[in-house]
């Protein structure tokens, strides 16, 4: 393996766009995950509060 081969392979790797597309998709997926977590957390807390109020409104069961 000579230096010219290594340089040619490095240039080909730098010009390759296949890896760039995969990285772009990974970034988009990460951003979507952040948005989903940001919106689901408050909704989950509201649902939990609703269930708590329903639970408190029901009479206690006696066996």
If you had to describe this structure to a student in words, what would you say it looks like?
The protein has one domain (17-63). The mean pLDDT is 83. With 63 residues, the chain is mainly α. It contains two helices and no strands. The protein is 84% helix and 0% strand.
As for the number of domains, it is 1
In helices, the fraction of residues equals over 70%
Class from helix and strand fractions: mainly alpha
How many DSSP-defined strands? 0
> Could you name the ranges where pLDDT drops below 50 across 5 or more consecutive residues?
none
Oligomer: single chain
Categorize the overall geometry.
Answer: rod-shaped
Tell me the β content: under 5%
What is the radius of gyration computed over CA atoms, rounded to a whole number of angstroms?
27 Å
The major pleated sheet works out as: none
From the N-terminal CA to the C-terminal CA, the straight-line distance is 82 Å
Q: Helix tally?
A: 2
Instruction: List the helices and strands in order.
Output: HH
């Amino acid at each position: 393996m000579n230096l010219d081969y290594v340089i040619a392979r490095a240039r080909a790797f730098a010009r390759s766009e296949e890896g760039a597309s995969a990285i772009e998709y990974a970034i988009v997926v990460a951003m979507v995950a952040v948005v989903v977590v940001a919106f689901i957390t408050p909704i989950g807390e509201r649902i939990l509060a609703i269930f708590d109020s329903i639970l408190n409104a029901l009479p206690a069961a006696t066996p």
